[in-house]
Amino acid sequence: MTSYQETLTSNEVNDLIVETATINHVEVIENVIDSLEQDDSAMVSRNPDGNYLWKFKYGSVEVFVQLSGTSDEDTITVWSAVLKLPVKDEPQLLRYLLELNCTSTLEARFGIIESQVVVISTRTLAEISPGEVSRLITIVATLADDNDEALQSKFAAL
After folding, report:
1. 3-class secondary structure for the chain?
2. Over the stretch 1-45, which tens digit does the pLDDT of each residue have?
3. Name one Pfam family in it (predicted).
4. Peptide bond into 86 cis (omega under 30)
């Protein structure tokens, strides 16, 4: 069997590294959302500054994905509201959410934004892979869908 080796110049090697290292974050996010969304529910808006905001339905929740730009310093933030505040037995709710944050939320976490309990994750784009983007979106969507109804039935205000 004959073996051939191709020798690349240093410029060709650099071009190959840049080509493989550069991912189209918008395309990756849209592919992930296409695989998760239900009932053609996905919507996107883009402002002139290069920020993107997607919204889609996953199970019983709405999931939001925000991309603040496409440079390494920009971020991807994924969140989904699971419970409106105020609630009954707020101290017990907060304790329960802290316990979940320590045991089962992986790269996401429960938090409070504008009087709503949310599942949220954020990450800078520096060295992020398509698999990490997919994982962030999937983790937030799954945690929100798995917990929203139980939290609402146990803690929602009457």
Report:
1. CCCCCCCCCHHHHHHHHHHHHCCCHHHHHHHHHHHHCCCCCCEEEECCCCCEEEEEEECCEEEEEEECCCCCCCEEEEEEEEEECCECCHHHHHHHHHHHHHHCCCCCEEEEECCEEEEEEEEECCCCCHHHHHHHHHHHHHHHHHHHHHHHHHHECC
2. 555 555 667 666 555 444 445 678 889 888 888 888 778 888 999
3. YbjN
4. yes
CB 80 within 8 A of CB 119: yes
CB atoms within 10 A of CB 94: 15
More confident residue, 65 or 40: 65
Pairwise CA distance, residues 60 & 40, whole Å: 14
**Each residue of 89-141: pLDDT tens digit?**
999 999 999 999 999 999 999 999 999 999 999 999 999 999 999 999 999 99
User: Of 94, 36, 90, 40, which is closest to residue 65 (Cα–Cα)?
Assistant: 36
The C-alpha R_g of the chain, in whole angstroms, comes to 20
Distance between CA atoms of residues 110 and 140, nearest Å: 10
